[in-house]
Amino acid sequence: MSESRTIQLAPSLLASDFAALGEAVERLQGVVDVYHVDIMDGHFVPNITMGPAIVKALRGHTDAILDVHLMVSDPDRWIDPYREAGADWICFHIEAAPHAQRTISYIRETGARAGVALNPATYVPGIDYFVENGDFILAMSVNPGFGGQKFLPRTLNKVRALRAELAAAGLNEVQIEIDGGVDVGNAAEIVRAGVDILVAGSSVYGAEDPVAAARALQAAAEEGLR
Ligand code: DX5
Ligand code: ZN
């Protein structure tokens, strides 16, 4: 990985007060440049969160990147609605997408940045066949569906394996995002394993002072670059 590697913290709005989502993004303005937005359909995962109308409303409260994580069945159906609502990054689960290469290409065609998410137990040798520099891989470090779960440390083995696979394919610019159970105690180790984007819900919005919590997480993650 290059020296110029930068780490991004993506606070997950799932852990914020859903009756005050606008305030949640405004609160971290200037502290972070990407927000993670968890879309759950009650079918792919056993929980329901928000839809395109809410992403559209959020778009009116921030110019930051909206990182839309689709935990939905049949993701192809939802790419246009979320892109039109203002999603900048769109990521879908490979477990829900039988033609992942087609799905990822379509996301790119809409002008959004494309990501492919992997459940904790999913490992996809040959992922380099369909990601390109510019895309990202989201490694779930908890089972998707709920915030506030415990980080599954074995996920880091997968991150290291993915990193090696990507390097062998000349895809060093593909970023790896990790999602679930991230906190100040594990952020540095996560970065050392090869992660570039850290999603954090409870450890940011569940904290008394989300700004201080986000800054502490950023500092902890930067430690992993040293
Ligand atoms: C879980 C979601 C995560 C969640 C992470 O299904 O995809 O983005 O918000 O929350 P924490 O950081 O609390 O584990
Ligand atoms: Zn997520």
Top keywords for this entry?
226 residues, alpha/beta, TIM Barrel, 8 helices, 8 strands, 31% helix, binds D-xylitol-5-phosphate, binds zinc ion
What does this structure look like?
The chain is of the alpha/beta class. The protein has one domain (8-223): Aldolase class I (TIM Barrel, Alpha-Beta Barrel). It has 8 helices and 8 strands, in the order βαβαβαβαββαβαβαα. The protein has helices spanning 21-27, 52-59, 79-85, 100-109, 155-168, 187-193, 202-205, 210-223, and strands at residues 8-11, 34-40, 65-71, 89-93, 113-118, 136-140, 175-179, 197-200. An 8-stranded parallel sheet has the order 1-8-7-6-5-4-3-2. Helix 2 (52-59) packs parallel to helix 3 (79-85) and helix 6 (187-193) crosses helix 8 (210-223). The longest helix has 14 residues, at 155-168. The radius of gyration is 16 Å and the shape is globular. The mean pLDDT is 97. The structure holds D-xylitol-5-phosphate and zinc ion. D-xylitol-5-phosphate is lined by residues 12, 14-15, 36, 38, 69, 142, 144-149, 179-182, 199-203.
> How far is the first residue's CA from the last residue's CA?
13 Å
CATH topology: TIM Barrel
| The level-1 CATH class | Alpha Beta
- Which kinds of small molecule does this entry bind, naming each only once? D-xylitol-5-phosphate, zinc ion
CATH 2nd-level architecture: Alpha-Beta Barrel
Order of helices and strands: EHEHEHEHEEHEHEHH
Q: Per the principal axes of the C-alpha atoms, what is the gross shape? A: globular
Describe the biggest sheet? 8 strands, parallel
pLDDT averaged over residues: 97
Assign a percent range to the helix content: 25-40%
The strands making up the biggest β-sheet line up spatially as 1-8-7-6-5-4-3-2
Number of strands: 8
As an assembly, this protein is single chain
Low-confidence stretches: none
CATH superfamily: Aldolase class I
